[in-house]
Amino acid sequence: MPNYNSGELLERAIVSILDQHYPNLQLIMSDSASTDASRHIIDKYRDYFSVVLREKDKGQADGINRGFRHADGDIYYWLCADDELMPGALRCVADIFAGNPEIDVVIGGCERVFADGKRYITRADPDAWKKIGMINVIEQPSTFWRSSLHHKLGELATHFHLSFDWDLWCRMRDSGARMKTTEVVLSRYYFSETNKSGNAGRMFAREAFQIIRRYGPLNGMLAHIYRMLYHCFDLKGCYDRPPTCTRMRSYLFVLVLGALRMCFGERLIYTYNWHFACLQERNLPWW
After folding, report:
1. Which CATH number applies to 2-196: 3.60.10.10, 3.40.50.880, 3.90.550.10, 3.30.70.20?
2. For the stretch 247-275, what's the b/e string if a residue is b when 16 or more beta carbons lie within 10 angstroms of its beta carbon?
3. pTM for the complete prediction?
4. pLDDT for 79-112, tens place per residue?
5. In Å, how far from its chain's centre is CA 88?
6. N vs C: which end of the chain shows fewer Cβ within 10 Å?
């Protein structure tokens, strides 16, 4: 569990793990020298942790890496301090791995909860490996993998602030990892008005460009296409519903999309999904 000043939310995450009543669990806390209420909460549950690290890290990916260096289990996973596991999730995942010794990764459903109370369930995509170089269709709180795969791939990329999980999924795919999905909802993923997944639009666009350029189709050229769509049309309101761009830009948008579809096909062009980041960057509701 990576944590930095998550306050009272941390207890919700810890309790969701303890309530699994899973008999063979190694729980590691990687706390980046928090100064808020989370310090007391960690002390409160200290006896349940195999390892507690309290040292300033260089970002969330670095904190997770530090925790995994102490892990010796068969299945790896991290839970962010503001999310929670659904009841029975660990037993469900363990049973899937036990019954399918050939698989390396298990991905389940996830309930997303937004700042205004809206929520919806995303289902695990069985075609995730085909799409992951273009769009992150994998819910991190609902993804588990074998320790052997983790050691094969190495640590999370610490130069990413948001997309280190997306980079990891791409590396899993490229390594030939075998993935299995389940319809079971394994986690609850909270999006607030302040957490980094909810308000870092410009950073997402920058990191998504790097991911798609490295792992995406067309030898990475799709990243340049998506970045052009983002800056020239999305940020100008062309993807809004209804559009808020000028009439001239709307005409140009239609022409450009038509040309791109003819050159590269609808699937690649319509997979573009940076609009939520555009709304974040423009300080508009994005869910």
Report:
1. 3.90.550.10
2. eeebebbeebbeebeeeeeeebbebbebb
3. 0.95
4. 999 999 999 999 999 999 999 999 999 999 999 9
5. 21
6. C
